[in-house]
Amino acid sequence: MPPAAPLDTDVAIETPEHIVFRHRVAGPARRLLAYLLDLVICYAVFSAIAMLVMVAAVGTGGFSEAAEGAAASGIGLLLVVLFAIQWMYFAVLEAWQGRTPGKRALGLRVVTATGRPIGFRAAALRNVMRAADALPLTYSGGLLSLAGLVSMATTTKFQRLGDLVAGTVVIMPERAGHTTPLVLFPAAQPYELAQLPDDVRLDADERQAIEMFLRRGPRLGRARQLELAAMIAPALAARFGLRNEDPARTLALLYDCAARAGRTDAPASSKVPGSWR
Amino acid sequence: MALVSALTEAAFVGRRQRDWDRLDALARVVQSRGLRRLPADELAQLSPLYRDVCADLSRAEAARYSAPLIDYLQGLTAAAHTVVYGHARGRFNVPGQGSALRVALEAFPRAVRRHRLAMLIAFLLFFLPFFGGLFATLADPSFALRIVPESQLRPLVDAYKEGFSAGRGAGTDALMAGFYVNNNVGIALRCFATGLMFGVGSAFYLVENGLATGAIMGYVGAKGAGANILTFVVGHGSLELGAIVLAGGAGLALGWSLVAPGDRTRLASLQAAARSVVVIVFGAAVMLFMAAGVEGFWSSSSLPDVVKRSVGAVMFALVMAYLTFAGRGSDQAEALERALEDESWT
Fold this sequence. Notes:
Chain A is an alpha+beta fold. Helix content of chain A is about 55%, strand content about 5%. Chain A has two domains: about 10-170, no CATH class; about 190-260, no CATH class. In chain A, strands 1-2-4-3 form a four-stranded antiparallel β-sheet. Chain A is elongated, with a radius of gyration of 30 Å. Chain B has two domains: about 10-85, no CATH class; about 100-340, no CATH class. Chain B contains twelve helices and no strands. Chain B has helices at about 10-35, 40-60, 65-85, 100-115, 115-140, 140-145, 150-160, 170-195, 200-260, 265-300, 305-325, 330-340. Helices cover about 80% and strands about 0% of the residues of chain B.
């Protein structure tokens, strides 16, 4: 039996290079906020145009026939703008930029299920389907999209009906910055090094567990630090023949040695002759 | 998996950092300014850098380097992946078939013909209630009152009795054109989208609109303005009613893909149908934009009835000829479109 996928709100994307990376999938709350922001932007523009139309109609002179005509064309224009808000704004911006200003503000992006930017047809489809997501209402302005919510709740990737039809996912692309590597402080003392074997080999899980502990360490109280460290430090100390006086220090020492073990030559860029290995 | 790093993490990062920074900068430039703006020499660097980072991510994961480094490389790979595997633009473009516009113009009627059964059913779902409503109202005008409120019918009768010899202000024309865009295109798109409920939504909108349209025309006719409303409708009718039928048919095809998915999963079947009919929805929307222009500015003008009716007949013939004949004989394009249905959007 293959190992079950972890229960998590992310989507694994495999590139043609057979590299798998994960994107976090955006949930309904964040998406609703982005949607509200977009509505605010749309209706701000709408109000601005409406003001212009009113000023223009009044400006052309009282209640003359020309003024009435201008006002009527203005209302016609406003109706077209209303149509554009409801049916075109999202589709055009998502096709062009992959996200609307509201989605940008909340760090969301629409991609295909395979992690690529969406094209115009997919963008149009997922947004036309807002009418189906709004069911059982005929139009909800996206605020009470019952069908959409049910669909999001029952799919693992938080897809509303429009996403299912167009094969799209709304993700939160995260660009983790560099973090500084862990440094042993104070540096290893000669008597500590003397206890250690030349070759400290930690398996990957041990290394990861210790690293997480060390990164969290400064935020924990001293007592809790010791309590956590004591869970694995004795076993490791016994394996490497260390005196386990301070479990937290023992873990830090072992991690430091393991991280510094290994070759120091590195893979070269593939554009530079003489590459890795 | 008891893998021990063969290489210290610090050495790995130190050696590779420059390439990562370079790729990061390139990806940011492409994301903000687009791939086309990138100079050729930088474009040429993009793909090798991306492949190197993919390999780096693999190595870092295999060697179980620290979690922050892996997160960083994942983010970088994902960002570069978005840039390198951008959406293939102009999927309508077929080599040797001419401009994208011409191909799109031909793809629309081809898609309509591919789904001709759904279109026929949509046609019947609209026009059977239409003629039902029309004849029932002509026989007994009170029938229309059960479908459309009298407060809406009375002004219509007054307007059509008056005729169009006086013309209408350009302002009112623009107002009505705007109204038709907002109202009619909205109805068509909703008619398509609700087809997702196994076609029920599309069928409902088709029957409802057919019945109401028939009842209104019958009511105006029964009150003695039949010739006027016919003259008004004939100019834009083929575009407007045709587009509603096409959008409804596209919705029915969408719904049917869920009812009878064949050897695909229901989701795959739905997505394939959506890819196949989306061009019909675009086409129908464009037809409705054109219809709104005609209805706002032409149908209500003071031109003689003969002119309006002849133009209406020509429009009908043009629409039918376009949908029937445009894009025929291009087997290559036809085959490609069928193949694209099976291939998921990537």
